[in-house]
Write a structure and sequence with these properties.
Blueprint lengths: L1 E6 L6 H17 L3 E6 L19 H9 L5 H7 L8 H7 L2 E4 L10 H9 L8 H8 L1 H10 L7 E5 L16 E5 L8 E4 L2 H12 L4 E6 L4 E8 L2 E2 L3 E5 L6 H5 L4 E4 L6 H17 L5 E8 L5 E7 L9 H8 L4 H13 L4
Parallel strand pairs: 1-2, 1-3
Antiparallel strand pairs: 4-7, 5-6, 5-7, 8-9, 8-10, 8-12, 10-11, 12-13
């Protein structure tokens, strides 16, 4: 297949996206596909339109080219009106499918998906509506509650409505304060007292205009991929320090990840059921990943859904797939296969 692996972009998760995209593109080429790596925002300057998907291709060089823009993104955003970089849409139209290696805003929030739908461009992952709902943690929470998927108690609050009085919100310390539409745990804070709460609000609002405040669940953290409606083996994530924040997600050796998770068959079945129910509640197509906290007594809570989860070779979904005997390149192919179902 002729495949554009789309990565980079303008979100706080740009560098992670480039790593995901590089891994995906390399794996798909190993499988014999004519995959090319493209930065959605920075684009490609010189395209050989006679042969845009060459048999010989240097993925690492394309990755390095994308990374060379990292320090210039904020300046470029000020100068540009169009989000799509040079030749991006034309290359995507020429491809059989676009593998979305994007993370965060303008990638996971449904805007790119809606554009591609209007242009007749096929892409991996779920559609625009479920992407938009899952990106908004306040809406996700409402959809979970309506569909009997257990989730921590919480509310969303815009900057205009902001109150520093937790009691007025019917909540007590400790609480989690997080940006409504962030990803990779950027803008997530645990507040144990009033001073930490006020600082967390200030920091979270520096990213966006709406935050979610929810009860802090003390316990073990898990993640479950749902591919084509079926839950994969559960992975437990145990950070050596603090919680599973941005640093612990992406710094080698900072977490212990165990798959399959060491929990009873009953709890495993229950969590996989809630993962499938959570994906269904948000109308997910193709694949996604849901994150959970579980208390010592076995009570479990679904925190959120990730529509385009990390896809570096050591990311969570590849680890879960490995337990099922699916290697990384085969998984990349499988995600294309299940994503194509929405076009039948």
């Amino acid at each position: 297949m002729k495949i554009v692996v789309l990565a980079g972009g303008t979100s706080t998760e740009r560098t992670v996206s480039i790593t995901s995209g590089t891994g995906i593109c390399t794996a798909l080429r190993q499988k014999g596909h004519q995959a090319i790596l493209v930065d959605i925002f920075c684009g490609v300057e010189n395209v050989d339109w006679e042969n845009p998907f060459p048999a010989e291709y240097d993925v690492e060089a394309a990755s390095a080219y994308m990374s060379s823009f990292n320090d210039k993104i904020e300046e470029m955003k000020k100068e540009r009106r169009n989000f799509f970089g040079p030749n991006v849409l034309k290359l995507c139209e020429a491809a059989d499918i676009v593998f979305l290696g994007l993370h965060g805003a303008n990638g996971e929030d449904g805007k790119v998906q809606a554009t591609f739908d209007l242009m007749g461009i096929k892409y991996t992952g779920t559609g625009y509506l479920s992407s938009a709902m899952a990106m908004d943690k306040g809406i996700t929470k409402q959809m979970f509650l309506m569909n009997n998927v257990p989730t921590p108690r919480g509310i969303s609050m815009t900057k205009d409505e902001m109150t520093t009085d937790l009691k007025a919100l019917g909540m007590e310390f400790p609480v989690v304060v997080k940006t409504c539409c962030g990803g990779s745990s950027v803008g997530v804070y645990i507040a144990n007292d009033q001073a930490e709460y006020e600082q967390a609000l200030k920091d979270a609002y520096s990213y966006e205009n709406e935050v979610v405040i929810e009860e802090y669940i003390k316990g073990r953290e898990f993640s479950v991929a749902v591919v084509d409606g079926k839950a994969y083996p559960i992975i437990e994530i145990a950070p050596l320090q603090g919680f599973y924040d941005y640093k612990n997600k992406y710094q080698a050796g900072s977490t212990i990840e165990t798959c399959p998770a060491e929990i009873s068959p009953e709890l495993t079945e229950k969590m996989q059921h809630y993962a499938e129910a959570g994906a269904k509640a948000l109308f997910m197509e193709g694949y996604c990943r849901l994150d959970f906290m579980m208390k010592e007594n076995g009570d479990m809570y679904c925190l959120e859904a990730n529509t385009l989860p990390g896809m570096t070779p050591t990311s969570l979904i590849p680890q879960e797939a490995k337990v099922l005997g699916i290697d990384y390149p085969t998984l990349c192919e499988k995600l294309i296969e299940v994503s194509m179902k929405k076009y039948k």
